[in-house]
Write a structure and sequence with these properties.
- By secondary structure, the protein is of the alpha+beta class.
- The protein has 2 domains: about 1-145, Jelly Rolls, CATH 2.60.120.10; about 145-220, Arc Repressor Mutant, subunit A.
- It is about 45% helix and about 20% strand.
- It is built from 8 helices and 11 strands.
- The strands form 3 sheets. A 4-stranded antiparallel sheet has the order 1-8-3-6. The protein has a 4-stranded antiparallel sheet with strand order 2-7-4-5. It has a 3-stranded antiparallel sheet with strand order 9-11-10.
- Helix 3 packs across helix 4, helix 5 (about 150-165) packs across helix 8 and helix 6 packs across helix 7.
- The longest helix has 27 residues, at about 120-145.
């Protein structure tokens, strides 16, 4: 089963046979439970390959407020949990399991050793990290330059596109956490969206009922 999973990785067939053998031999299955802290601060937990579930990657301010950087789902790879692979990572990054997760993990030191000998794996690591840092910059842009109504519209639209469902099964507290905003602010804005017939609010979720209007808000300058 592990060998079959390895063969699905995007860089797999570019690796040398020796690199493939060492990589697969050190890749271990790992289960994480909802709410479990996987990585905290600057550490080298290892490179995590998500088979199912959802991981949240975030930072903590000195006051204890957390800022969601991005979430990872099936098929994604968490590189920021392996600071020894990317020595340029010099800031504290936290990773929590948002759902029960099935993953594969390879120790950071082993991944780094293989990557040092095989440029294809090193390129994969840096391309993955670059993609995530682009997402981080998008988060920074939203927090500092977007009004709350547009940020909420962007979030709801992205969730709807990701799941293919108008029903977004997230509580207001979860939405606020993922948006790095205050629950009271999100609650007030959702009530406004509801009054404008853009969404319906349920106890444990939000239903988008006017996709055209929501998209207009998300794309507004």
């Amino acid at each position: 089963m592990k060998q079959a999973y390895c063969s699905t990785l995007p860089f797999w067939h570019k690796l040398s046979e020796n690199a493939q053998d060492r990589f697969c031999a050190n890749l271990k299955p790992q289960k994480y439970h909802r709410g479990e802290r996987i990585n905290g601060g600057i550490s080298c937990k290892g490179v995590i390959f998500i088979v199912s579930g959802c991981l949240r990657v975030y930072m903590l301010s000195e006051s204890g407020r957390d800022i969601t950087l991005f979430r990872l789902y099936q098929g994604d790879v968490c590189m920021l949990s392996a600071s020894c692979v990317l020595p340029q990572i010099t800031f504290d990054v936290f990773v929590d399991a948002e759902e029960d997760c099935d993953c594969y993990v390879i120790p950071g030191a082993v991944f780094a050793e293989i990557a040092d000998r095989d440029m294809n794996l090193k390129m994969f690591a840096y391309e993955t990290a670059l993609t995530r840092f682009s997402e981080v910059m998008w988060v920074v842009q939203q927090i500092h330059f977007m009004k709350v109504d547009r940020r909420l519209a962007v979030f709801l639209w992205d969730e709807m596109m990701r799941t293919g469902n108008e029903l977004i099964p997230l509580t207001q507290e979860q939405i606020a956490k993922y948006m790095s905003s205050a629950r009271e602010v999100v609650s007030r804005m959702l009530k406004y969206f509801a009054s404008e017939k853009i969404v319906k609010i349920f106890r444990k979720g939000v239903m988008v009922i006017d996709k055209k209007r929501l998209k207009e808000l998300a794309l507004a300058e």
